[in-house]
Amino acid sequence: MPETKQITTRVLPGFMELLPAGQIQFERMRSTIQASFERFGFIPLVTPVIERSEVLLSKAGGETEKQIYRFTKGENDLALRFDLTVPVARYVSEHFNQLTFPFRRYAIGTVYRGERPQKGRFREFYQCDIDIIGLGELSLVNDAEILSVIYTTFVNLALPDFTVRINNRKVLNGLFAGLGVGELAVDIMRMIDKREKIGDEAFLGSLAELGLSAGVVARLSDFVQIRGSNAEVIAGLQAMGIQNELFEAGVRDLAEVTRAVEYLGVPLKNFAIDLSIARGLDYYTGTVYETILNDHPEFGSICSGGRYDNLAEQYIDQKLPGVGISIGLTRLFDQLSDAGLIEPGPATVTRVLVAPMIPDLKIPLEIASCLREAGVPTEVYLEAARLKKMLNYANKLGVPYAVIVGEDEIKEGQYSLKNMLTGEQAKVTVEQLIDRVKNIPDSDI
Amino acid sequence: MPETKQITTRVLPGFMELLPAGQIQFERMRSTIQASFERFGFIPLVTPVIERSEVLLSKAGGETEKQIYRFTKGENDLALRFDLTVPVARYVSEHFNQLTFPFRRYAIGTVYRGERPQKGRFREFYQCDIDIIGLGELSLVNDAEILSVIYTTFVNLALPDFTVRINNRKVLNGLFAGLGVGELAVDIMRMIDKREKIGDEAFLGSLAELGLSAGVVARLSDFVQIRGSNAEVIAGLQAMGIQNELFEAGVRDLAEVTRAVEYLGVPLKNFAIDLSIARGLDYYTGTVYETILNDHPEFGSICSGGRYDNLAEQYIDQKLPGVGISIGLTRLFDQLSDAGLIEPGPATVTRVLVAPMIPDLKIPLEIASCLREAGVPTEVYLEAARLKKMLNYANKLGVPYAVIVGEDEIKEGQYSLKNMLTGEQAKVTVEQLIDRVKNIPDSDI
After folding, report:
1. A425-430 mean pLDDT
2. Second label for B77, Cα 20 to 30 Å away, from A360, B125, B186, B191?
3. How far is Cα B90 from Cα B250, in angstroms, rounded to an integer?
């Protein structure tokens, strides 16, 4: 049937699809993130991939709206979610009366954006989000907890040296107001966001282009260059002598959040106030976060978020302040892979391959069942083949152990356990076999 | 802004969305299924939700094609996957040279069918699939392994009394051929599939309507009524005296598969040959499975599948025989919930709520970090509130323990641990606290 073979069987461009070894590592990252989130009492929340377009479009804008996957089915105007924030806002509004606040949820799922496919940009990608949503109010210590979650998650992921940078939008907005340029806040914020990318000179030039006076530009330049320990940065901010309530509140907030972060045991080397972080999104109103791998600043922020005043004002007449972050897992995995930061691993979860040397599979299958009952992922090589082919299969997949079951072994009640990495071989009973292969940490394989 | 409040913020009909307690139980089922699959060496495989329409439509037909979510984005004719089988066929074809066979994969993900929404029918639902795909050939013992996976999975899910029913399409097709009615095989099979639903009389009537002779109808009636132990059923089949090679091969296959299932330790009470199972899908060619909750036959089959000759003939010139099954998790969860078979559980994963009675949160946050480091999901009540409100929060969510941290407790270094279920309260050090709350099985809470 030559025509049917003409079907393009390639995955769509912009969609990540992994081979088994990569997929296993991806899943390991995903479950590590999930376990880290649950450690802090966040509960899983799953919402549909498809929503009414009017729900999604009520929050989308600009680029996002262009990128949205939208279609009709029957009479319904539908779209695929482009983030996990709009769905949680819809969820909280819809189920408001059945939820307990503060509501702590995580969501790990795919979102869809029809971006131009290019290296590092995906049209389907996993986001791993947490949010704490309060009713009416939400204590500032939650902002510290969120930072502690980021820290714990990246430690558990065994990622190299990273820094969570935090800032506070009140400090920025208060500063602009205090300097009399509040109406340009959004533009100035955008320039501050770009500063790291464009460099100091272009940054100062761009401020001047906004029509700011030399004096204001100098103050802003001083501001973004305040450096040092958290205590020093806070002292530096206080020393600026800005007479603005919002600014002062922001500085107090930063001090309170960083103090609570220390209480939570996050090492000082893993977080820092960085006054040059603004996070473009309009709805952040307080703390904002970015996370940088110190040796890979080119990754950009691998975990970002912030505090917002009201999650779902477009859906419900309740004030729902919150704070949350998001990890773009698909992109992060892609970047880590490209940078060689993901160790190559096995293409299987199997720990033991049972290799039968006899046509009657009674004993090999029984041994496999014993291992499985003991929690050891086990396969039996079920096709007729020579031992060499079976061991070759184990080697190709990266199965760490093979158990050879032949007539002699069955008579003796002792089976040959072969360590596929070292080639070592030993005769063991089934009990010894289970003991030997059971509690081996991944790193020892 | 009254207009913006007009947005319909309800989840779309036909889409399951759970409240926290339900979601936690759903996730527990999902991870139990996943762990069960991995125990047998199946590896995770994730493919995109969106595929090219031509890929999906090459296998779809009839109802499925009408139900498909299809749309264009730019120049691409796209669709949402309606099962996980077509994607794995596309994946194996595309990555054929990088895979090792037999290829054992599981996939747990959502699929989409625009069915008319009705009770128990979902437009987005989770399927949990496993398949073993051979290259050129695949030993029959794999069919037994698949049954062992079904058994293990449902035991791990702690589902009530269930039976995996198996049959073999060769027996059916060989029987029809042997009776000289091979050209009506598909129609007869459809009637056999319906027999349980429509009853014996209607079944026999429908066979007569197909134009079958009274003699053939009598033989078919005898056939579907063969009962007894697996050995008895096989003896009954042999005693029918059907002179047909396919039939004989099918009977041999059934005998071999059921023997291997016994070797794998599946209790006889949990599986049975059932000659009335056909499974409509055309591509099954050997073993077929259905799984029934014995006390809830109205659920229908909760896990079905079978053996097929060729997974991906429409995509690749390789013979890829396989055997696999699928659990429709969303539907199963819905049915179990309706039948009251899902125990109500907490609306949180949190095991301990730290309740601070003091404004300085240093010690409460430190205690929380200790608990989290020890692996105990922990929350701190961070809003200013009285103890009563905090304990009320714990009660509403179903948090099993609260630790009360006040000035006296801090002085003593002993904190009040309250069992929220029994009301018992004890003074404990942080170390004792961790010991007490750490390794409590869920069932003891």
Report:
1. 95
2. B125
3. 30
- A92 or A344: which carries more pLDDT confidence? A92
Nearest to A71 by CA among B69, B352, B82: B69
The answer to whether position A229 is within a domain reads yes
- Beta bridge pairs of residue A72: A77
Q: Residue A281: its pLDDT value, please?
A: 67
Does the CB of B438 have a partner CB in chain A at under 8 Å? no
The verdict on A323 and A370 lying in the same domain is no
The answer to whether A445 and A350 are in contact (CB under 8 A) is no
The CATH number of the domain holding residue B314 is 3.30.930.10
More reliable by pLDDT, A292 or B283: A292
| Residue B122, token pair as written in the block | 């979902």
B109–A contact, CB cutoff 8 A: no
Same domain, B378 and B303: no
CB-CB neighbors (< 8 A) of A356 in chain B: none
For residue A24, which residues of chain B lie inside 8 Å, CB to CB?
43-44
Q: Per residue in A238-279, pLDDT tens?
A: 999 999 999 999 999 999 999 999 999 999 999 999 998 888
Q: Tell me the residue range of the domain where A413 lies.
A: 352-444
Q: How many CB atoms are located within 10 Å of the residue A313 CB?
A: 17
Provide the number of structural domains found in chain A. Answer: 2
A8: nearest CB among B52, B105, B260: B52
| Residue B109 is assigned to a structural domain of this protein | yes
- Model pTM? 0.95
- What pLDDT digit, counting tens, does each position of A147-203 carry? 999 999 999 999 989 999 999 999 999 999 999 999 998 889 888 888 888 888 899
Place of tokens 């907890």: A145
**C-beta separation of B434 from B370 below 8 A:** yes
Q: Does one domain contain both B404 and B275?
A: no
Does B431 map to a domain?
yes
CB atoms within 10 A of CB B53: 18
What is d(CA A300, CA A1) in angstroms, rounded to the nearest whole number? Answer: 49
Give me B79's structure tokens.
Answer: 């669709």
Both B310 and B426 in one domain: the answer is: no
Task: Specify whether B359 is located in the same domain as B331.
Answer: no
Question: Nearest CB to B102: which of A20, A144, A383?
Answer: A383
Of A136-150, A360-374, A431-445, the range with the lowest mean pLDDT is: A431-445
Q: Residues B161, B31: one domain?
A: yes
| Average pLDDT of the segment spanning A69-76 | 92
A379 part of contact set with chain B, CB < 8 Å: yes
What is the DSSP secondary-structure string of B283-331? TEEEEEEEEEETT-GGG--SSEEEEES-S-TTT-SS---EEEEEEEHHH
For residue range A331-354, what is the model confidence (pLDDT) as tens digits? Answer: 999 999 999 999 889 999 999 999
H/E element, A72: strand A70-73
CB contact under 8 A, A377 and B105: no
Question: What is the structure's pLDDT at B344?
Answer: 86
Q: Which H/E stretch holds residue B50?
A: strand B50-52
Min distance A397 CA to chain B CA atoms (Å): 7
Same domain, B311 and B362: no
Query: What residues in A contact B19, CB-CB < 8 Å?
Result: 95, 98-99
Residue finishing a domain among B338, B364, B385: B338
B145, B264, B349 ranked by CB distance to A41: nearest: B349
Point out the domain boundary residue: A314, A338, A362.
A338
Q: Cα separation of B190 and B196, whole Å?
A: 11
Instruction: Note whether B360 contacts A: Cβ–Cβ < 8 A.
Output: no
Contact A297, A258 (CB under 8 A): no
Residue A54 lies in a domain: no
Residues A208 and A332 in one domain: yes
Q: Provide the pLDDT confidence category of residue A443 given band limits of 50, 70 and 90.
A: very low
| CATH value at residue B425 | 3.40.50.800
Chain A 403-422, residues with CB within 8 Å of chain B CB atoms: none
Nearest to A48 among B11, B141, B397 (CB): B11
